[in-house]
Amino acid sequence: MDLIQKAFWFLVAIAILVPIHEWGHFRVARACGVKVFRFSIGFGRVLWRRLGRDGTEYTLCSLPLGGYVRMLGMGPEPVAPHEQAQAFRYKPLRQRAAIVAAGPVANWVLAVALFAAVAWIGSEQPKALLGTPPAGSLADSAGLRAGDWVRAVSGDGQQWDDVDSLADLQSAVLRAQALGEPLQLSVTDVQGHGSRSVALDTNRLAGRSPDAQLSRDIGLLPLLQPVVDVVAAGSAGEAAGLRSGDRVLAVDGRAVSDFGLLRQIIRASGGANGPATLSLRVERAGQIVELQATPAWVDEGGQHVGQLGVRPVATLESTVVSYGFVDGLQRGALQSWDLAATTVRLLGRMLVGEASVKNLSGPLSIADYAGKSAQAGLVPFLDFLGKVSLSLAVLNLLPLPMLDGGHLMYYLFEGLSGRPISEWWQLQLQRVGILILMLMMALALSNDVSRFAGWH
C-alpha cells in the first residue's frame, strides 16, 4: 500500500474520531445551556460553513488534524451581564467539569461500540496454535513445544482470560512484557486434551522496545507446516533444488514436525568452520526426493546463523470468533477498560524509566497501521479505530495543561480549595504543558522515523 493510500485512511480515521470528541463537548455544553459560537472540524482556512438554527456556526477547515468548540465565556474575554447565564465560566463547577470530560468520554464510548461491533460481526482468526519456539527464547525455556494450543492466560494464576485467537495471545503477552509482569498460559495439545499450566517469564524482557528481536526472544511462533512457498532467487535453497510446494520431512534423519523446527535446525547448522551441508528428505508431488543443502552463513546481530532463503506456506488453522449482543457489548467494555489501564500503567513505567519510550507511536505509525488495517478488511479497521479512539480518550485525560485532563485538575483544585486557580498560575502551567506536549510529539515522531528507517 502506497503512502497516498495510507494518508487517505489516516485522514478517514481522523475525520471519524475528531468530530466524535468535539461532539461530546458540544452536546453536553448545549445540555448545560452554554452558548456555542462555533463547532469546527479542523483548523485554518474555512472550506465550508453553515449557520444552524441554534446560532452555532458549523465549519470544516483546511487542516483536518483536530477540531474545537468555541463557547461563550471559555476564554478571558469579558461577558456581558445579560449573557452570563449562557457563559461557560459562570456555570457550576460540576457542569464545567462535565463539559470538559465529555470529549474523552465520547471517544471512550465510541471505542466500546467499535470493539463490540468487532465482536458482533466476528471474523475468521488463526487459533493460538504454537510452532517450535526458537532456542533460548522464553517459550523454549517455559517448555512450550510445537502443537501446543494456548486456551487462556492469567497474570496471577487465579483469574483466567480466555484466548480466542493468536492475536489475543500476542496482545496479552506484549501487554505483560510492557508492564514487566510474568504471564501464565493454560495449554492443551492440538486436539484440546491434556491441559497444563506454563509460566512465561515476560518480566525478564521488561523495558525492551517492541521490535522483531523482541518477538524472537519471546518465541511464540504460529504453527506452520514445513511446506515451502517461496524460494528466493540466488538463495541456498534454490541451489539445493528446493521448489515451491515441497514438504520437508526430515533433516539429517531428524523428523521435521513444523516450519519452526526446520528454521531452528537451519539456523544452528554451522560450526567454527562455517555452515555444514545438510541432507533433506522432501516430499514433492507424492514422491520422496533426497536433496543436499548448504545454508548461507549470515551475520544476525553479531551471531552467525544459517539461512536457506525459503518462506513457508502461511496457512494457519483458524476459527470463526464472534459473540452475541450482550457478550459482545461486555467484551467491548472490558477490552476498552483493559487497554486503557494498560496504557496508563505503561505511560507511568516510561515516566520512571522502567519501560522503553520507544513504545510511543506518532502520526507516521498511526497512518501505517490505518492503511494496513483498512487493507485487511472491515473488522481490522474497526478494531484499529477503536484502539485509536481509546488512545485519544486516555491522552486527553492526562493531567497536562492544554489537555482536557489538565482542566479537570484545575476544577479538582477549585472543588477542594473553594476558589479557582489564578490566571497567573494557569499561564505558567500552560507553558509547561505546551513544552511537555511538544517533547512528547517530537519523541513519538522520532520513534516513527527510527522505526521506518530500521534503526530499532
TrEMBL record:
EC identifiers of the protein: 3.4.24.-
Keywords: Hydrolase, Membrane, Metal-binding, Metalloprotease, Protease, Transmembrane, Transmembrane helix, Zinc
Keyword rRNA-binding: no
One Gene Ontology MF term: metallopeptidase activity
Transmembrane segments: 97-121
Cofactor entry: Zn(2+)
Membrane topology summary: Multi-pass membrane protein
InterPro entries in the record: PDZ (IPR001478), PDZ_6 (IPR041489), PDZ_sf (IPR036034), Pept_M50_Zn (IPR004387), Peptidase_M50 (IPR008915)
Gene3D superfamilies tied to this protein: 2.30.42.10
SUPFAM superfamilies in UniProt: PDZ domain-like
Subcellular location field: Membrane
Enzyme class at the top of the EC tree: hydrolase
Residue intervals of the PDZ domain: 227-258
PANTHER family documented for this protein: MEMBRANE METALLOPROTEASE ARASP2, CHLOROPLASTIC-RELATED (PTHR42837:SF2), REGULATOR OF SIGMA-E PROTEASE RSEP (PTHR42837)
Similarity-based family: Belongs to the peptidase M50B family.
Protein name: Zinc metalloprotease
Organism: Pelomonas cellulosilytica
Gene that specifies this protein: rseP
